[in-house]
Design a protein that fits this description.
Distance between the termini: 27 Å
Helix content: 40-55%
Number of helices: 34
């Protein structure tokens, strides 16, 4: 960096100061402090592990606005309040938290010459306070952790490291990564400079290769995690596709997945967090392959691809490009790794190529810039800019971006960094990462399907407006406090990238008046920004990324994170007085009204969603409106290519990349993965990762597992493992045949118009032992298949396979024919198999077993509804209102305009509130509703099941994340 004229002095910006910024009020009122505009209340925050009731955290009497949800207050209290609990130094009010951060930003802004006068600085502080108080935006977590405290002023969540081909550099990598993990952040690194295991050392021996050194780094990350961190280490490891060790790198995690399966089958504890999973390698990192246009073209056209040595660039080997691409896709199909990063696309949008190429990313793949650099993030809550009439507050959005970018740039002036190399690069290039959350909720609330041209048009328009405004403010800051120090060297490529963004903006095709208004303003921002930048340069080498917004998304009470669609239509809501309830997402009634449905139909549809978790066959809902309510999980899920197309629509308007994993169904094939990865390249994405449901064996610790712990364990009592294996080998199941004369009953059924007969025969003690299925004419293929299936099920029953095992496997199986049945106890069936095993469960399983599987008769369901109605009425008139009243005696009067503008949420809460099942998060609630397990880890802190957030996971219970933001 020395050749770039970079200085480490933090006073450089001050020396360049000129007139300073004039700040105008947008959200605030002159003479009124933002704190005086809201109603405050005291709450008790008691966080418990819902599985065993143990208390994880307790702080009573904390102060928050009454408009903040219980979840938001709980997460801010536990995560962001500083000071030891129980001491006078402990923060207890949101006012203290916001003041601690905003005062630091305002003071630094004045010190470094950002404001024209003290009055402008005061307005800036009030505007930031108002926006944070009203959940308009949030800084990333390190800001809340560190700013204004005696700790180092660490403001960045994302780091990129560099490793050269020397032992000193490799050992420095281990150390630097460890320091970053210790602080709760994540890092990424490209290992392609390390020579391959097929090259020689100067001493004449053979090099170890990068995969070998990955083992040491993985062990280090695992050790630091187990040494006190509450989450897995977040790291990214990248290798270029032309590295001679690429094939070994690609299959590392897939091979370990095979090991996990073998060890699990041998009786070892291979659950995530289990005692034996630590023996598996490479589990603490996300792996990505950096592919070039040359390689992807070879895949497209067929042919060889050269793998080159790291020392002299000579060809070490030539491989079949299609075969290598298949290997990459096969490994991703098996274990979700590796993802792809499209190198030429990334560097084509690089503002600073004269300083160096972009070789790596942070763990979630949204931050892409120079080696040994960092990025601090902040995200806007898009729902705060949606008007009651469905319009978008364009002017307020523009002004809000100005405030946030200004604050983020100020933070670099006072920030501390984990290493001096990172500090030098970050201060010289001042990379920022403004982004947003709640895109999925915004689209649904306005009646636009996520996977539609209209939805992508609005998303692209908003993203272009955000980044265009950010760069325009960055150019204005350059005129006030100077361009970033590396700008002079990179002026022409930086201008070229700005023109590329502006040209992409011109290609947006608005499909609605809202999108048209946003695009018009975005065009204005790009034009003005590039004109100012031509004169002064830009203050920041990077302006925007789209991060997962995990914990801060909960802080802002967002329904959806980052660019994600809604997880599901039902959610799990905590109550002020304790307890929880199931509600329909607040965006659903707003969407129905946007689509023109009258109030009585809205209520009926909401009730249907509350009962079923989806909109299919909702009374009065038009089928053409079903896509508006498609979600990431549930009955109607967004197709994988729908996610890819949304990423492609917004990628040209993001400085960095997009943190998002494309979820694929379990039935997806390797060819499907290949198509997704190939289309990602064609559509101009910078990075892409996939996850196929249930592809990983190592699953979180579960209730089922803990129950097994109470049973006698053969392994514990056996003197040695070989004896236990010997017993398994000697065991042989015994077939219990039915007597010649046995009781049976036959049921005729119709599923979706297809008719058939089910005959079930029992043992004398009433246990099911035989099944016959008759469909279609004798001699037809279907009749033969059903006969064979009947024999297989019957033999399984006679060998002791429990009926509930078959029921759990075959219910919810979906294929045609499906639909209405003529059975009053099973009105709808997803397939013939779904109906058959529901009918068998009703006839032969006791109520307790059926209740666990969610299978009830019509009379049982009716009784449940009556009981729920009685319980709900009692709750509303009794203890719950008492608890709420005692915690907030005067807080029932809405104090904010937003409260008046959002009657949908209040109506939905009252209309469809139900006692939540025995769950601890929205993910677990969704599992209970749809009867299918979600492939998500349990939180290491509080034990609840996490939910996806970009390419990471976040816990609704305590706000912990599996990523770096």
């Amino acid at each position: 960096m020395s050749g770039d004229g970079v200085t480490t002095s933090r006073s450089r910006s001050k020396a360049n100061a000129s007139a300073g910024l004039k700040i105008e009020r947008v959200w605030t009122t002159e003479g009124v402090h933002p704190y005086d505009e809201v109603t405050w209340e005291r709450r008790d925050v008691v966080m418990t592990n819902w599985r065993d009731g143990s208390i994880n955290f307790e702080q009573r009497g904390v102060e928050f606005p009454e408009s903040w949800s219980v979840n938001a207050a709980n997460i801010v209290t536990t995560k962001y309040f500083r000071g030891a609990v129980g001491t006078p130094e402990r923060e207890w009010s949101l006012k203290q938290l916001i003041d601690r951060v905003v005062t630091t930003y305002r003071t630094a802004g004045e010190e470094y010459g950002y404001f024209a006068s003290p009055a402008d600085a005061e307005i800036f502080g009030h505007e930031l306070t108002w926006m944070l108080l009203h959940q308009v935006f949030s800084f990333n977590s390190p800001v809340w952790f560190n700013v204004g405290t005696p700790s180092p002023q660490q403001v960045s969540a994302c780091f990129i490291l560099a490793v050269d081909d020397s032992m000193d550099s490799i050992l420095d990598w281990y150390k630097e990564e460890g320091l970053i993990f210790k602080g709760g952040s994540g890092s990424g690194v490209n290992l392609s400079r390390i020579r391959s295991s097929r090259e020689l050392l100067s001493s004449g021996g053979t090099a170890s290769g990068p995969v070998s050194f990955m083992r040491g780094a993985d062990a280090s990350a695992g050790t630091i995690k187990s040494g006190g961190a509450t989450r897995r280490a977040a790291k990214m490891v990248i290798l270029d596709v032309d590295h001679p060790d690429i094939e070994e790198f690609v299959v590392t995690k897939a091979r370990e997945e095979h090991k996990i399966r073998a060890l699990r089958d041998a009786g070892f504890d291979m659950d995530l967090g289990g005692s034996d999973i630590v023996s598996v390698q490479y589990q603490n990192a996300n792996n990505s392959v950096r592919v070039s246009d040359e390689f992807m073209s070879a895949v497209e056209n067929g042919g060889g691809f050269d793998l080159r040595g790291r020392l002299d660039g000579s060809v070490i080997d030539t491989v079949d490009a299609k075969k290598l691409f298949r290997t990459i896709s096969q490994a991703a199909w098996e274990c979700a790794d590796p993802g792809l990063q499209y190198d030429d696309t990334i560097n084509d949008w690089h503002t600073c190529p004269e300083t160096g190429r972009i070789t790596a990313s942070n763990p979630c793949s949204e931050y892409l810039h120079l080696d040994n650099s960092s990025c601090n993030l902040a995200s806007l809550n898009l729902m705060k800019f949606l008007r009651a009439d469905g319009g978008f507050e364009v002017e307020k959005f523009v002004k809000s971006v100005e405030f946030v970018i200004t604050a983020m740039d100020i933070s670099i002036c006072f920030a501390d960094f984990p290493t001096e190399k990172i500090g030098e690069t970050s201060r010289a290039y001042r990379q920022l990462g403004i982004g947003y959350a709640n895109l999925g909720a915004l689209l649904m609330a306005t009646g636009l399907p996520y996977d539609s041209e209209q939805g992508r048009s609005v998303a692209a328009s908003i993203t272009s407006l955000m980044t265009g405004t950010a760069y325009r403010r960055s150019a204005e800051l350059a005129g006030v406090v100077g361009a970033y120090e590396g700008y002079a060297r990179n002026a022409e490529p930086h201008k070229r990238v700005m023109r590329k963004h502006a040209a992409a903006n011109d290609e947006i095709k608005p499909t609605s008046p809202v999108a048209t208004a946003i695009v018009r303003e975005a065009t204005k921002q790009w034009t003005q920004g590039n004109k100012i930048g031509d004169k002064f340069g830009w203050r920041n080498a990077q302006a925007s990324v789209l991060a997962p917004t995990g914990t801060i998304g909960f802080m802002m009470d967002c329904d959806t994170t980052g660019v994600e669609p809604d997880l599901a239509l039902v959610k799990f809501k905590k109550l002020v007085g304790g307890g929880s309830m199931q509600i329909v997402n607040q965006t659903v009634p707003r969407a129905l009204r946007s689509l023109g449905y009258p109030e009585e139909q809205v209520e009926a549809i909401i009730e249907h969603i509350a009962d079923h978790g989806h909109v299919v066959d909702a009374p009065g809902l038009k089928p053409e409106h079903y896509p508006v309510f498609d979600c990431a999980m549930g009955e109607r899920t967004i197709a994988p290519m729908g996610h890819v197309r949304m990423m492609a629509a917004i990628q040209p308007f993001v400085s960095g990349a997009i943190s998002k994993t494309v979820n694929m169904p379990e039935a997806a094939t390797v060819e499907d993965v290949e198509k997704i990865y190939f289309e990602g390249w064609k559509l101009g994405l910078k990075a892409l990762a996939i996850y196929r449901d249930n592809c990983k064996v190592g699953q979180p610790l579960s209730v089922a597992k803990s129950n097994k712990a109470t049973e006698p364990a053969a392994v514990e009592t056996a003197p040695a493992a070989p004896a236990a294996v010997e017993k398994v080998i000697e065991y042989r199941p015994v077939r219990k045949r039915l007597p010649k004369k046995r009781p049976s009953e036959t049921v005729s059924f119709s599923v979706g118009g297809a008719e058939g007969y089910l005959t079930a025969s029992s043992y004398p003690d009433d246990g099911l032992g035989e099944v016959f299925l008759k469909m279609s004419k004798q001699g037809s293929t279907l009749a033969g298949v059903m006969d064979a299936f009947s024999v297989a099920i019957s033999i399984g029953l006679q060998y002791g396979v429990p009926l509930e095992t078959f029921v759990s496997k075959f219910t919810n199986m979906r294929f045609e024919p499906a639909g209405m049945t003529d059975d009053p106890d099973v009105r709808m069936a997803a397939s013939v198999m779904d109906y058959i095993f529901r009918r068998l469960a009703l006839d032969f399983l006791p109520y307790e077993r059926r209740a666990e599987l969610g299978i009830f008769t019509a009379s049982e369901r009716a009784a449940q509804l009556r009981a729920e109605a009685d319980a709900e009425a009692a709750a509303v008139t009794g203890a719950e209102l008492t608890a709420m009243a005692s915690s907030a005696p005067v807080a029932e009067i809405p104090a904010k305009p937003e409260a008046v503008a959002q009657p949908a949420q209040e109506m939905a809460d009252v209309a469809v509130a139900k006692p939540a099942p025995s769950v601890g998060s929205s993910t677990e609630l969704l599992e209970a509703v749809i009867g299918k397990a979600a492939d998500a880890p349990l939180c290491f802190t509080c034990g609840t099941k996490m939910r996806p957030a970009g390419s990471c996971y976040v816990c609704e219970g305590c706000g912990s994340t599996s990523g770096c933001s």
